[in-house]
Amino acid sequence: MEGTGSVNSKEKELLRLLEKDGRISVEKLSKMLDVSTEEVVGMIHKLEKAKVILGYSAIIDWNKVNETETVTAMIDVKVTPKRGVGFNEVAERIYRFKEVKALYLMSGTYDLSVVIEGKTMSEIARFVSEKLSTLDSVLSTTTHFQLKKYKHDGVVFEDRDEDHRIVVSP
Q: By C-alpha distance, which of 20, 106, 3 is closest to 58?
């Protein structure tokens, strides 16, 4: 099931619905897709087995939980790709670090964008200086600390029950 060639339109619709709400019931999905619950279960199983669906997660606003805060940083990394493997080898070395939450190959000034979490800015600085920048292929890094999260995966993080309609006056 390489690419989307073997995923039909109902399965794509199912994927979009699950991406918005991974907890939506099979019964509700069957009504929305106009198929039986057995067909929904079958599609989900097929997509999980083919690793199209890689997992299910919740979006948590950790600021509302009495939990020690974490610091999130986005690190731009300039690397020298290796002959024959390009960026894949260095990317694999980077994503194996437990601190790394996401890793992307980018176009533009930097090659890789690394998202990491730590308990403090100092912990992130140690990760960059002791682990990331010591890798052979890494030429330079630029670290950006996340100060506030407004929206993530389409979910707005602020409780604002304001009326956003435009006031029209004569």
A: 20
